[in-house]
Amino acid sequence: MAGNNGQPPLEIVAVRGNEELRSFLRVPWSLYADDPNWVPPLLLERREHLSKRNPYFRHATYQSWIARRGTRTVGRISAQVDHLHLRRYDDRTGFFGMIEAVDDRELFQALFDAAQNWLMEQGMRRVMGPFNLSINDELGLLVEGFDTPPMIMMGHSLPYYAGRIEEQGFSAAQNLLAYRIRCDFPAPRHLDALTARVAGRVRLRTPSRETFSGDLAIIKDLFEDAWANNWGFVPFTDEEFTELGRNLRLLVPLDYVRIAEVDGEPAAMMVLFPNLNEAIRDLDGRLFPLGWLKLLWRLKVSGVKSGRVPLMGVRQRFQGGRLGATLALMMITSLQTSGLGRGMEDVEMSWILEGNRGMRNIIESIGGKPYKRYRIYQKELQGC
């Protein structure tokens, strides 16, 4: 593709080997060099995420590209076909993700052309994104809230991205909110009355090392039941959830996990993740030679001051009623005690669908404020 304004020609290159993958992973470093709120991801973890060892690739097809002008890598994008999504929705929808690029309309068009053409070759007729890589990973484009760093497994982007994507014919499919809550929030005034109503029926418990494997299966079952009717839901595979369990063991203290039982049966769950981004922010993406020691110290000894709740769910038969709201509030206030005990100051609850008024009301009742908005885009591919 010919260059303009005296620039070298633009070349879109499919990522096939290690050289292209290294360039793909490194694109954000030049783009965010002057952004104080960008957190360099761990390169080792990102490489693993895109490797065949990621259980996502047991049910998905994937291709990625980098964009070059001369010797400089100026952008990247990925495209995915998730066969579990297709099996569930039968909607011929593929996904784009990993979008990063300098502010250049021609560049964005070339990257999206590559992704869209590949998706049409796979038989897709609609594209949504960004998904990095699936709905159970980091997703959505940051469109509001650029003035603070992202929490663990949440994205950051540059303000011009939204406009450049919309120039390619994309429109909003969903908005996702991230709420910020001070850990020292006062308990809602009506909580005592709510808990008194369920006294003797509801029990909150924390997993132990001995019960962890069984409790992980309970958390998976509760998540799938609670989220089954949520927009875009695709369940974790057993292999994916086992991988998540390994990460939980490594990163999450057991007292950051709650399972709520009603009349002796699991009814709700909640997991608070320490904010890994806070711990890795100054490591420049590297664990070696000394980064791993700093990370270990910060997670296991000094602790981090922020966290995120990525997993929370109430079984469907309790949703929409007083008992469901009570379970959610009881878990939140119980984990508040654990977080404060470890020096945590702020927690993000995300992502929350903008239209999920019930969950938003619960979070706002304890002082939560929406401070970031992420957007999922969509576009029909026929006639591209």
TrEMBL record:
Gene3D superfamilies hit by this protein: 3.40.630.30
Lineage: superkingdom: Bacteria
Database matches in InterPro entries: Acyl_CoA_acyltransferase (IPR016181), BcerS-like (IPR039968)
Xref: SUPFAM superfamilies: Acyl-CoA N-acyltransferases (Nat) (SSF55729)
PANTHER family, sorted: PROTEIN YGHO
Protein's recorded name: N-acetyltransferase domain-containing protein
